[in-house]
UniProtKB/TrEMBL annotation:
Name assigned to this protein: GtrA-like protein
UniProt keyword terms in alphabetical order: Membrane, Transmembrane, Transmembrane helix
TM region positions: 31-53, 59-83, 95-119, 125-142
Organism: Methylovirgula ligni
Location, primary (coarse class): membrane
Membrane topology: Multi-pass membrane protein
Amino acid sequence: MSAVSDTLPRQDSDAAPGTRRAKLRLLVSDLLGYGLVSAAALALDWGLLVTFVKAGMNYQIAAATSFTLGMLLAYAGSVLFVFRGRRERSFGAEALGFFAIGFLGLALNQGLLFGFVHFAGLPVALAKAPTAGCVFSFNFLARRTLLFVSEAAGVR
């Protein structure tokens, strides 16, 4: 029986790029890398948001400005460290897609901040916490699914 099982092909080989295990490993790697890059972008975003609001800027304008600057950092980190080697589009198309998703994330950011500040009564700095979690999830899933895929390698 052992001789027969040794000759059968393995269904879940770690070496095959299209396997569930390889896809899961890549997903976890992407999530961790994107998480680190996003943490740096969030630190910039949050720090600038608090600074701008303390300086007297309207929190919605401050949030849009700080989010956009954080998004620039997230883009650089994503293409340099997280999703490198998986460019399926031209640089221009990829950047356009990245920022289009980012601006959808900005709209989500603005709406959630408004809701947490005006309806839940949270201070802006505290309202940023649940907002950041929601926007991170949206941006990661959209960017990984729509932009940084490699169909040739069988990886999504």
